[in-house]
Each structure stands twice: as C-alpha cells, then as structure tokens.
Write a structure and sequence with these properties.
elongated; three-stranded antiparallel sheet; 5 helices
C-alpha cells in the first residue's frame, strides 16, 4: 500500500507514504497528492479507527473515496512553507510527538529565545487568527506558564510543501486497482457487500 501511485482521475492521483495510529484511536495517513504528474501537496488525513480492521485493498478503496471527495480542498490547504518558522516548528513538534501535541512552557521559551523572540510570538498569534487555528494552536505570552500549546489535528490543516519534488514523476500502472477488483470479485462470489 505504501509508496505506490493510485489514480483518482486521469490527471489526479496519490501516494500513501506512511500511516500511524493516533492517541485518538483514529488512523493518520501521510498522503502525497499528484496532479498532471506533479507532486502538488503533502497532507495528513485521518480515517476512523475501523479502517485498520479492513483488508489493504478495502483500506485503499476507502482512502480513494475520501480523496476523490476532498482532493480540491486538500490541495487548497495553506502551504506550510508560507508560514513563519515558529509555526513550522510547532507543526513539526506535533507531528513527532507521541502524544500528538506539543507545549512550550515559559521555561522552554528561554531556550526558544535563542532562535525566536516576542515578535515571533506576535506573528504566530496573527497566523492563528489568519488560518482560524484557535482550536488547534494556542499562543500566550512569554510570561505565562504555557507560551504555546499545539494539538493533534494541527498538521492536518496544512500542505507541507517544504520538500515536495518539483520534478515530474513517471506514473507506473495502477497495479493496486487489480487487487481491489479481485477483492470485489471475491465478495460478489460469496454474496458479501464491500
């Protein structure tokens, strides 16, 4: 399932690069979106926890359906490269956190001050307003106990375009489509619904 190209429409497709179970019980997928053979977005989508009990082919079918319905919305997410370095660091911190959150205490801020200052905090507050992130990222002042708190869904709100390949990719045949069709055929043979 991973690192294979799946076609959505003639000019659109996706690659699942990884997945993990989140503390919330749902499953997160890191997905690369393609249009006209160009990598246009690197996004994280979350699916209900029941997806992990499905076969690989059925998981891909569910993901494909989700992406068909939300492709335009996902490719329109704000580009992380256009945000401040502090915002990028908070998104990255949530991504790598086992608890799917991050917090910067006023003690931590002392170390952050080697790179950032109170002006950066003000800029981060403006970005929270601009992107309507108040439920996902809270920014206080350097004198408060928690200067910054980021929550688990924060990375799902951005296109992490910082390392997208600018080169065209050569699309291989959509081999997984055959395994999805094979599974559907098996279900029909046994009178089961997908």
């Amino acid at each position: 399932m991973y690192n294979k190209y799946f076609r959505l429409e003639e000019e659109k497709g996706f690659i699942i690069s990884s997945s993990w179970e989140r503390d919330y019980g749902d499953i997160a997928y890191n997905v690369l979106l393609y249009e006209n053979n160009k990598n246009i977005a690197d996004v994280i989508i979350c699916m209900d926890e029941t997806i992990k009990d499905l076969s690989e082919a059925t998981q891909i079918k569910e993901i494909r359906e989700y992406l068909e319905n939300s492709f335009e919305e996902l490719k329109s997410l704000p580009k992380l490269s256009k945000t401040s370095k502090l915002m990028q660091e908070m998104v990255d911190s949530v991504c790598v956190s086992e608890a799917q959150m991050c917090h910067v205490t006023n003690e931590d801020w002392f170390y952050y001050k080697e790179t950032y200052n109170d002006i950066d905090l003000k800029s981060l507050k403006k970005e929270v307003e601009k992107y309507n992130l108040s439920n996902y990222l809270q920014v206080g002042s350097s004198t408060e106990e928690y200067v910054i708190v980021g929550y688990g869904d924060l990375p799902t709100l951005f296109n992490d375009d910082r390392s997208l390949s600018k080169e065209l990719i050569e699309i291989e045949s959509d081999t997984i489509q055959q395994s999805i069709q094979d599974e559907e055929d098996k279900k029909e043979d046994y009178g089961m619904e997908m």
